[in-house]
Amino acid sequence: MPTATPKPKEKVWVVDVPAKEEVGHWEEEGYWKSDWVYQCNACGTQFSSVEDFYVHSDEEWDKGNDHGSYTQVPGNTRWIVTGQHWVVDEPAQEEQGHWEYK
Q: In what order do the strands lie in the sheet with 46-47?
């Protein structure tokens, strides 16, 4: 009488926690920049050049107003982009599991 040979058990991987891809976002790199402007000390009007201020000053002088001095101040600021970098919000996670014999 022939005897049955048991089939060898297969080793299989059982996933307990599936893998998870990294989650993140890109952020800009850069700096704030401002050009100098020239602000009239009498009325606060801003000019992009000293020459423009002096035109204003002469016009006001002709009207009998003394607008003869200015202060150099920063103008409107703007963001200058120099690059970007990846920020990880949630790191990748490897699959977790165990081997079982089937």
A: 46-47, 23-40, 70-90
pTM above 0.90, yes or no: no
Q: In angstroms, what CA-CA distances link 100 with 16, 63, 65?
A: 12, 96, 94
For 20, the enclosing helix (H) or strand (E) is none
pLDDT digits (tens, 9 = 90+) for 19-35: 999 999 999 999 999 99
Strand-pairing partners, residue 80, are 31
Identify the three-state secondary structure at position 55.
helix
As a whole number of angstroms, the distance between CA 82 and CA 33 comes to 12
The one-letter amino acid code at 24 reads G
C-alpha distance from residue 40 to each of 19, 61, 76 (Å)? 64, 13, 16
Q: How confident is the model at residue 3 (pLDDT cuts 50, 70, 90)?
A: confident
